[in-house]
Amino acid sequence: MEVGTPVTPVQTPSTKKRPDSGLKVVVSSVASDAHTWNLVFLQLLLEELGHRVANLGACVPDELLVQQCRRHRPDLVVISSVNGHGANDGLRVVRELRGHPETAAIPVVIGGKLGIGGAGSTELADLLEAGFDAVFEDGTGLASFGSFLRSIPAGVTT
């Protein structure tokens, strides 16, 4: 598989039972992050919660993410990073998404190991100011992510 090639979502029992339920979610990494286990985990978690997921995979160029968001018209974009460069790449990618009329209003979140400076850095404020709707730092648990998911109504951007 080529870097940045969209991954076909895994069909789990939850997605087979409820193909039209929940949110439409695009899961992606940033362009510099080659890790995939985090993306698979997020996909399976989201599908178990009843959401429909398009997993774009690792090392996704900004242009491809924007293109796939135009194609899928998701209710939410989830960006995950574990390489410690998520904040730098995230700033660029969220500005790209916010810069196009078709993707400007889609809720976008980022999480994982976002920087090499550790938790509580000023990068969080920068990411929110740049346009992310929420930022989930590595080690903060899934409860706040779950709460955020429940706050988004399905079909907002369609």
Could you please describe the fold and organization of this structure?
This protein has a five-stranded parallel β-sheet, with helices on both faces. It is built from six helices and five strands; from the N terminus they run αβαβαβαβαβα. It is globular. It has 158 residues and is an alpha/beta fold. Helix 4 runs parallel beside helix 5 (123-130). It has helices at 13-17, 37-48, 62-72, 86-98, 123-130, 143-150, and strands at 24-28, 52-55, 76-81, 108-112, 134-137. Residues 5-18 have low confidence and may be disordered.
Give the distance, in angstroms, between the N- and C-terminal Cα atoms.
30 Å
Low-confidence stretches: 5-18
**Number of β-strand runs:** 5
Strand portion, in percent? 15-25%
Radius of gyration (Å): 14 Å
Number of distinct helices: 6
Largest sheet: 5 strands, parallel
Give the helix proportion (percent range): 25-40%
Overall body shape: globular
- Assign the structural class, choosing from mainly alpha, mainly beta, alpha/beta, alpha+beta, or little secondary structure: alpha/beta
Average pLDDT, rounded to a whole number, is 85
Element-by-element helix/strand order: HEHEHEHEHEH
* Biggest sheet strand line-up: 2-1-3-4-5
